[in-house]
């Protein structure tokens, strides 16, 4: 076992650390959760360098020896496994990332144009303020709530730039943990796998509400309403703004209205995760309708936004956290606290993606071009969805109804395949997907639909 040198002080007057620091250090060491054997600490070694005396203890235990191997991430780990596979038929339907018909990653033309503009302007790389780029924060709130939404004019929305959707959710979780201690977050069953990690790490309690009904392969609306009603008053209710991940099943406008009724009745706080605005229907406004419905009721709400999918800015980590407050004054205070939470976590956000979004959304010509590109992407996904359904229906002679695939929207299809069946998809067919039966249609081409249909039919009928 490698021996580790730990800084420690002793009672010797010449020691470089005080007794107070020694005890403090010891307490940290012992309370850190790492298993240390006090007996194994060797006598103090005194070293002298450049006239300064420092004392260190040689410890023959590694601090990291007791750390166990973490499991691969259920979503991002799929891409790692895919890369390692050398079979030429392999398909990566794990992560929700848009690919072209040739299955290549896609950089939007409007993004390239915005980047050219940035180069021409010779913009600098100074730190952003903690809350991010002002021009970005302005357009992102307008895109979400609608530019003419009175909430914006009344300055009731606290918007801060976040590290994409995930970082924005994490920031909001920190806000909940600090200012609503003990309040729980209700999350849908099932939901995007990272939601639970985010709230666990932020030490925010959560529980689940019913959402998906495997019998109807649709929304368990009654169950959802009953669980939201039964939750303690003042809970945060996490809702997917559109294109629910992983099921691809969204409430209808009428159902959204009823969900808002119960949330209002129970004094809950709606907390939207909007990672697919424009990707579900192809229309930015239509996909923001759920959020706008809640906002129009005068409710306080939280909304995390991501530009990973709709602008293809996955690795730029660009998104935002919006908190709608009852007054401009409250919004200013909430924003100040969001900044206070962000500062020790990551100090301030990156500028590149924020400038891209600000340039695209803020320029009418680029904005229109973006909408056309988004429609193209959403359209390609709809085409493969249709082709997959057609292939399954033509090939499967069992009479199984595959029409649920057409009813789902967004990047994904929730196939209903169980864990063993999903594993068969990967092990036998080299189709990489998450173990909950979700496939990303954004990673599928028309040319591969027949192959995928064969894999699904085999896994569904021949593996229990
Ligand atoms: N919310 C939802 C619902 C979501 O699906 C994702 C990403 C995010 C937030 C966060 O994305 P970000 O890139 O942090 O803005 N989902 C895909 C990628 C991932 O798991 O990180 C996915 O489900 O494949």
Automatic annotation (TrEMBL):
Residue stretches in coiled coil: none
Q: Provide the top EC class.
A: transferase
Q: Which Gene3D superfamilies match?
A: Aspartate Aminotransferase, domain 1, Type I PLP-dependent aspartate aminotransferase-like (Major domain)
Give residue ranges for domain Aminotransferase class I/classII large. 89-456
Query: Could you mention a single GO BP entry for this protein?
Result: amino acid metabolic process
Q: What does this protein do?
A: Important for the metabolism of amino acids and Krebs-cycle related organic acids. In plants, it is involved in nitrogen metabolism and in aspects of carbon and energy metabolism.
Miscellaneous comment as given in the Swiss-Prot or TrEMBL entry: In eukaryotes there are cytoplasmic, mitochondrial and chloroplastic isozymes.
Subunit structure, per the record? Homodimer.
Under the heading PANTHER family, the entry gives: ASPARTATE AMINOTRANSFERASE (PTHR11879), ASPARTATE AMINOTRANSFERASE, CYTOPLASMIC (PTHR11879:SF46)
Protein known as: Aspartate aminotransferase
């Amino acid at each position: 076992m490698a021996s580790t040198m730990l800084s420690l002080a002793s009672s010797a007057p010449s020691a470089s650390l005080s007794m107070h620091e020694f005890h403090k250090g010891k307490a940290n060491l012992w309370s850190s959760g790492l298993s240390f054997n006090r007996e194994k600490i060797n006598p103090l070694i005194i070293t002298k360098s450049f006239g300064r005396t420092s004392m260190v203890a040689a410890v023959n235990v590694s601090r990291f020896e007791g750390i166990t191997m973490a499991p691969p991430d259920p979503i991002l780990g799929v891409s790692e496994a895919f890369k390692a596979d050398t079979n030429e038929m392999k398909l990566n339907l794990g992560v929700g990332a848009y690919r072209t018909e040739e299955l290549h990653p896609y950089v939007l033309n409007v993004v390239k144009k915005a980047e050219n503009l940035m180069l021409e302007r010779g913009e600098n790389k100074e730190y952003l303020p903690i809350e991010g780029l002002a021009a970005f924060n302005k357009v992102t709130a307008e895109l979400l709530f609608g530019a003419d939404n009175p909430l914006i004019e009344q300055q009731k929305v606290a918007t801060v730039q976040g590290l994409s959707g995930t970082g924005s959710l994490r920031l909001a979780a920190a806000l909940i943990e600090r200012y609503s201690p003990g309040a729980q977050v209700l999350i849908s069953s099932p939901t995007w796998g990272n939601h639970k990690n985010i709230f666990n790490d932020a030490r925010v309690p959560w529980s689940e509400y019913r959402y998906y009904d495997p019998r109807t392969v649709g929304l368990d609306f009654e169950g959802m309403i009953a669980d939201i009603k039964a939750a303690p008053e003042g809970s945060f209710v996490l809702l997917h703004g559109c294109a629910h991940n992983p099921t691809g099943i969204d409430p209808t406008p009428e159902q959204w209205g009823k969900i808002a009724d119960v949330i209002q009745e129970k004094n809950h706080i709606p907390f939207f995760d909007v990672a697919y605005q424009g990707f579900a229907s192809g229309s930015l406004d239509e996909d923001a309708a759920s959020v706008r419905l809640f906002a129009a009721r005068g409710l306080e709400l939280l909304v995390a936004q991501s530009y990973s999918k709709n602008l293809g800015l996955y690795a730029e980590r660009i998104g935002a956290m919006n908190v709608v407050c009852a007054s401009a004054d409250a919004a200013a205070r909430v924003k100040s606290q969001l900044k206070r939470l962000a500062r020790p976590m990551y100090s301030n956000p990156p500028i590149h993606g924020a400038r891209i979004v600000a340039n695209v959304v803020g320029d009418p010509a680029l904005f229109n071009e973006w909408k056309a590109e988004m429609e193209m992407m959403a359209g390609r996904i709809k085409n493969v969805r249709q082709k997959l359904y057609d292939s399954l229906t033509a090939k499967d002679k069992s009479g199984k109804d595959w029409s649920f695939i057409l009813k789902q929207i967004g990047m994904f299809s929730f196939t209903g395949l169980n864990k063993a069946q999903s594993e068969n998809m990967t092990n036998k067919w080299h189709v990489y997907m998450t173990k909950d039966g979700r496939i990303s249609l954004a990673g599928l081409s028309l040319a591969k639909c027949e192959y995928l249909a064969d894999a699904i039919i085999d896994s569904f009928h021949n593996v229990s």
